[in-house]
Protein 1
Amino acid sequence: GRDGEDDGDRAGAGQTERQTSVSSVDGLALARAFWETVGRPMLEERYPAYLGRIAAGLVGHGSECYGFDDAISRDHDTGPGFCLWLTREDYAEIGAALQADYDALPATFRGVGRAPTTPRADGAGRRVGVLEIGDFFEQITGYRRALGTAHEWLMLDEATLAAATGGAVFADPHGAFSAVRGSFTRMLRDVRWALVSRRLGMIAQAGQYNVPRMLDRGDPEAAWLSVGELTRAVASLVFLLTGPSSAGYLPYYKWHFAALRRLSRRMGSSLPGAVDDLSEILR
């Protein structure tokens, strides 16, 4: 995630200046273009001494960070915007002034305006703007730094880790932000295999054992819930076996199938047929 690099298979590179319709807007590409067209020039003009120390990108919660945004998801907490991440020292020196300059940037870009902001994406939980690096990761994960122990890793679910490591870094000449972000992808080997073991156990318990038992018992609601547990376990297993450093993490439940479909098309994906098998089971 150094200057100009994109982390992972993200849509958005090579986006043209032409805008079609709001329904066709790629949120990550819009954020990148807004940064390059409006954000970077603002920093070059007003904060030249800090330009080599500020990271920019779009990481965190939100479908646009996963590349899954569409017309339906753009009714709240979206629009032209990006994150500017500062070290603690730089944030103390210029954080307030830089936030004021960020707030003064155009509210509409390429015909796209800002959608209403929900309370969970406002204040301390804001998704864009000027953010101190440690505060940013603490707000998402509860930790300001890289995870060091197995206990810490096991305290976090995969959706949390997906939010901390998804999206894209547009620029990070200093490298401080990318160093912390990258550390969340380096899951301890023993933790990864412990989670793989748990997922295999749930697949056997919920899918192979309890689905037929609940159907035999005449309890279709319990059978449906068992299928849900099976689906979550298999989706997690595919990501864990492929590896967080390569595949990232499984996002929260709404995006399980979108994430699985995308991962199954990638070279080196483990169990690429699992998504079709799960679709058939659910049908």
Protein 2
Amino acid sequence: MSEEQKKQEEQFDIVWLLLYLWSKRKFIMICVGVVTLIAIVKYVSTDAKYKASASILPVVDEGMASKLGDKGGLAAMAGVDLSQSSNGNIITADLYPKVASSTPFLMELMNEKVKWNEPDTVMSLYEHVVQRTPSFGDYLLAYTIGLPGTIKSWFEDEDSIIIDNSGEEPMYVVLDKYQRGALSEMREMIVVEEDPIYGTIELSCYAESPEQAATLASKAVELLQKIITEYKTKRARLSLNFIEERYSETMSDYEKIREQFYAYKDSHRDMISERVDIAYQKLSDEYNISYSLLKTLSSQMEQAKMTLMENTPVFSVVEPVVMPKEKDSPSAKWHLVLGVFLGGFFGIGWLLMQLAWWQLFNEKKVKALIEEYKIEE
């Protein structure tokens, strides 16, 4: 078979296929109508979402020692070595999305009291999930696309939350179905992304009312800054707390020894004896050692405070949270276009699969169709 004949045959097959699909246009239109209707029902049953955003510029003061200038010399005279302060505690931008999607962050945020669309209703997202009545759209999705998940939920146990607080941080968390549902919704509501061009952190909150979106976005920014700061300064805070405890203990011992030393000194004034000299020298040595240790701890405490200050990240809110006026989603146009596209895709796909099946198992049907839609030359 020549190449020209092959091209003619391919052209004939494409034209034949288009004619066949055109003859089935009624079926395709029915598919488009049904899927579009489902999309419209989904649009009507979906609550409006409002978007509130904030832009954060994370900054770490890495040059604390150099910025102190002449004060660095005074600090050195006091025994504080600024050159040993750690300035490599840099916050990477990818840390923010990880923190924002973590379970402790979302659990604290989902317990924040916010106002809902219902009149005079103020409750947390967790309480709203527990008390919420599913809408028609929720039932439609649960028993169509989400049927496997619905069946799975029937056999899940209702566990209560268990947090092991015996240590400084919780070791494990067990969630019930309402908490899992609230966390799932919260992960869709709070979105934190890095802007690679400007190096900023973009935080967005999607909620069902403008006030709710602004409230949660503001709380998320505050909580994010708090967790990042605690994470980056944890070692410095532990070091400072340890030194402050030792300083307090040493100060207490120093005051006792000082009181004993001066009391003994006043009571044995103008008295000369070998026994008095030995006791006086012993108290004097204890006093000097205690004072020297107290002075050393004081210098270390100032050093620890400098290190904590240097490692504390500074956040600049480039764009604060603004209460939105217009809803962000759902979009009626998007649902309509998606319904038409998916309906046409399903209808045409079904017809093509039907042709492929007949070609494999029903050659008579294929021949009859070819004769029916044969193009006259």
Protein 3
Amino acid sequence: ILLKSKIDSENFVMRIFGDSHMAADFFSRELRSKFIEVNSIGYIYPLQPKYQQILTVSYESKDFELFNSKSNTNFSYAMGGILAESKKEGAFIKIASNLKEQNFNVKVFYKAKNKGFVLSDENKRNYALKKKGDKKFSSIELKNVKFPIQIKALEKNAQIGGLLIYKDGYDIKFLDTLGINGARSDIWLRWDKDTMKEVFKTVKSDFIILAYGSNDAFLSSFDKNYFKKTYKDFIKFLRQNNKYVNIMLISPPTVTQKVDDENYELSPNFYAVREAIYEIAKEERLMLFDMHNFMQESGGKDLWIEQGLSLKDVHLSIDGYKLMADKFQKDLKAFLATF
């Protein structure tokens, strides 16, 4: 009932955590166009890894190196698990808003040994992002910043962990997506919990979608107990830091893996992962949307491939994700109508 009223209110914050199905932003782009009319960008990575994108912003950068919590565990990561580090003084990142709105509050999470960064906005205002601590992420919150912005490094090895970009005032509406290609459901354990708490303290989430499972199904040995425990721990953490939040699980589309150059077969752990997700949803009293089930009801993966809605591997096409988002909205609307 609370979710139903919040969706149509002036203030509604929706966030998706997930793997490659969400990292391309096609599913969420469809939701932004038809489900929630956004006026803010939300939380974004400092830069986008290859094959990933956030369509609410555009990036330009020079002399920054990107690190990913999925494959590199030698760093501390802010929420979302992507880190940008300057390779030399003078390195910069430019971020432009693709929304109609161009003025936002901006909270930046960063690390610096000394001089740090300078952030400049379109109004030629400069803000210093200097060292505030030794090992933990520092943060600075800036009011009424006009985009595009530039973050310039004043030293080598200074790090940007993420940015929270939102409209000033009460009427904040956004849908942000924190997806990482290849991520499993325990990826959040590699992220700094203090930065996560600070993001939620600044702007709490009303609706969170967790969309993991595809890469867990690729594991040669799937540990159901570990999967359920770490997933449930994440849910508990999100609830503790987002009062009244509604959480939904998305069970992945049909997970296939490559056999040879031409052929794919169903992952042997796909149904075990799917079963575990269903159990978590029941035990934690969460909403659940099953991508695989919709594919089966509408002809199965082979037909989706034939119709250009799915690739041969685990991923869908752009049109496939659009269709999936349409089904998601229809099912959610029908469910909320029962209250």
Protein 4
Amino acid sequence: HKAFQPESLLMLAHRQSLISSLRRDAWVEVDLNAIERNIGVIRSWLKPETRLMAVVKSDAYGHGASGVADVLTACGADWLGVASIDEGCQLRAAGVRQPILVLSPCPSWAIITALESELTLTVSSCSQLADIALSCRRQNRTASIHLKFDTGMHRLGVDPAHTDEALAKIKENPELRLTGVFSHFAKADEEDFTKYQSAVFKTVLTKIKAAGQKPDLIHLASGEAARRFPFTHYDMVRVGLYMYGLEANVISDVVQPALSVKGRINHVQELSEGEAIGYNLTWTSTRPSRIASIPIGYADGIDRRLSNKMTALLMGKEVKQVGLISMDQMLFDVTEIPEAQEGDVLTLIGMDTPEGAEPGAVKQLYLATWANLLDTITYELACRLRIRMPRMYTRNLISGGKSSCET
């Protein structure tokens, strides 16, 4: 892209050999190799015949659903799971042909759109069966449905006591094809309640078998259950966070984070001792200081409560964030890095690999650290990262130019 880069950017490319967005000096990087390796780890938990649903709701937990879909399917994801009709349609528009399950109930006015996009629908109540059947008759179509049962989470799902009623409605409406049955765990890391929900689920399956129904897929396990409890696997498991290298609130020792957040310095200023900065002047310099700004803020999903608590990496060193995080900018104390200048890259989440650094000296910052500072989970923080930060996808070909899962 030399023809499109001003001379200053070419110089910076020499200073720091990093990819960068050409549209904005703040971006999210997604390492597709990390996702590939993580799927390999997940596959090691399963029998060869067990299918994998890659959950890509909320724009693949902030990683960009259309950007990661090809790698997910090439690496063995048999199904994709989304939260809404819109998410499924967006994947279809991006050319994704893999089976897609909409994991939440579909509004009656969107059923026809879902059928036109060949999405499989979750049904969590008997009334939804009637709505879908009516839409099918109007369009002379059939619908593939997965019945979801409430086995103890009490959020969504058919009451197991109403199993016979739901099966009767399906039998009455030949437009409905029961292709799957599933439920969801409330505490997938806790064995006792997981066993309780599994037992309830088995009673539902017994009723379905007695009614002569033979769904193609039975699925129960989330990623956490897939890792811990093989008795939950059935025909397919549904995995989200682990694919992206994250666990809820700890730094994972089994999978590798795929996501990084980076921004280029757009301003550097000198401060005298005793000067305060940012809205409400919440940080005051205790020495002559150099302060760098990057164009990332709470509008990009960086929680304002991280102000004066978080750090970033610059040229292999950790620097403190100072002052209140504003809508579009945040400040860092780079006094200890006198060579820092406009255009240099700060890493907020991810790995910093300065040139010539020894492998053991490479530093990394984790989303789990933010989650613990904020008393929340990585799910929430990854999903908050706004689309106005472009997604940049990286991939290093291995094994003589070939990846272990060809795309």
